[in-house]
Amino acid sequence: MPLAMDKSSFLKGLGSNIVKLRSEKNWSQSDLARACFKDRQSIERLEKGKINPSIYYLKEIADALGVELSHMLMF
Amino acid sequence: MPLAMDKSSFLKGLGSNIVKLRSEKNWSQSDLARACFKDRQSIERLEKGKINPSIYYLKEIADALGVELSHMLMF
DNA sequence: GCTGTTGTCAACGGATCAGATGACATCCAT
DNA sequence: ATGGATGTCATCTGATCCGTTGACAACAGC
Questions:
Q1: pLDDT tens-place string over residues B51-72
Q2: Which residues in chain B, range 41-70, keep a C-beta under 7 Å from any nucleic strand C atom?
Q3: Would an 8 Å CB–CB cutoff place B56 in contact with chain A?
Q4: Structural domains present in chain B
Q5: Which of A61, B10, B56, B72 has the most CB atoms around it within 10 Å of its CB?
């Protein structure tokens, strides 16, 4: 990951990462939302890079997806 | 990192990680704050695990420390 | 033609973050 | 012992989050 990356680009990249991990499990946004006890719309905002999520929120997503949090951040 | 880790423990662990990385560079909290253009007190809250920081905030810290964000999350 | 699923957007409200300021105790060097 | 650096705490304020609700278009299956 490039240093001093633009905030918006960073969040969009993170979102894409999550979409990819979710798709690999053939999950819909609703499936992921259910798995981490969150809202479908909240997942959508995350995947589109519209928000700057908290680290623990991301950890809950990672747990639901069954991946390491650090792995989710690599791109 | 154990799955379904308690939120407070998770944030404390993250803080400890940052203290460790900062200490390895022989930096004070003020040094780190300066390096990422943040507040000394903000760094302190982070290191003590008092807050649930945003992912981009953490990326700025990682950049300042010269480490990969994913590396900062491994514990 | 319906009906359910999916992805996307907007808006509201309570909760929390992050910057800023001020304060205090401890430690170290002069 | 005076001064500076350090770590820690509290408080205030604007910004942003996350959950929630409601809505809409596109699509698939019955």
A1: 999 999 999 999 999 999 999 9
A2: 41-42, 45-46, 51-54, 57
A3: yes
A4: 7-72 (1.10.260.40)
A5: A61
